[in-house]
Design a protein that fits this description.
Elements: H1 2-6, H2 10-34, E1 43-47, E2 55-58, E3 74-77, E4 82-84, H3 91-103, E5 109-113, H4 116-123, H5 134-139, E6 143-146, H6 156-166, E7 171-174, E8 178-183, H7 186-207, H8 234-248
């Protein structure tokens, strides 16, 4: 995608960036509907394609997910300087997102949220996603559990530790914190976060009965660590949500 945009005219590149902004704004609105965000906290970012120094798109400090529009998102460099847009980059967002983008180049999109079920899972000692639901067969090999992150992310050293812990995985359940999901595109990261949260919901609900959970056979694991969208209709999922938003919250793309 990056190589294509670099050959486009300025106006075409601006149109391509605007479409990415609309995708990101849609993710914020859906996340708000799903209750993923922590008041005005939490943040999602996207590395922008094109020539020149690396730049990423992110939500500015102080906005609820439900009110964010495509034009509200700010552009920052990997040093945290705001290059475009009005607003401030939240410090904790910088230490998480910039360091992941810098150390994990494949993580073009980073979704960091506190959804109900994955966050609840992160609070339980020695509890991981079990191989019980069909989603687990593709998902479980992609998840890493951060068992060291007790302190808030207030400096680059902690951000670097998180990025190293993530490694080649795409979902990090952060102990006592929430979840970070990364992907090569907006739709990959969004859809994988959506599926991971649903899967955690199924497991936590089943666990609440106090009965033993059924284990699926290990031989059925998909062992896929490539782009999520290669196996799942991630783009179609985000497109479907955008159609809903076009009808019900069309200001997201302004």
């Amino acid at each position: 995608m990056s190589a294509i945009i670099e050959r486009l005219s300025d106006s075409a590149a601006e149109a391509a960036e605007w479409e990415l902004r609309c995708d990101m704004a849609a993710v914020f609105r859906v996340a708000a509907r799903e209750g993923w965000n922590e008041q005005i906290g939490n943040h999602n970012s996207l590395m922008l394609p094109g020539e020149g120094p690396p730049r990423f798109l992110i939500n500015p400090r102080g906005y609820l997910f439900q009110e964010l529009k495509a034009s509200d998102l700010i552009v920052c460099d990997l040093d945290g300087k705001v290059l475009q847009g009005t607003g401030e980059l939240r410090k904790v967002a910088f230490h998480i997102h910039a360091r992941i983008h810098l150390l994990n180049p494949r993580a073009a999109c980073v979704v960091h949220v506190h959804p109900r079920w994955l966050t609840a899972l992160s609070l339980l000692r020695d509890t991981e996603l079990q191989l019980s639901h069909h989603n687990n067969l593709l998902l479980n090999d992609r998840v890493v559990y951060d068992h060291e992150g007790d302190e808030p992310v207030h400096h680059n050293e902690e951000g670097d530790r998180i990025a190293r812990c993530l490694g080649d995985k795409s979902v990090m359940v952060m102990r006592g914190h929430g979840v970070t999901v990364v992907g090569p595109t907006v739709h990959d990261a969004f859809d994988e976060c959506f599926i991971a949260e649903r899967t955690a919901m199924y497991q936590m609900t089943a666990m609440s009965t106090g009965r033993a959970m059924h284990a699926l056979p290990e031989r059925l694991r998909r062992n896929h660590l490539g782009p999520w969208g290669e196996k799942i209709d991630a783009r179609l999922h985000l497109n479907a949500w955008r159609r809903v938003l076009d009808r019900e919250e069309p200001d997201y793309r302004t």
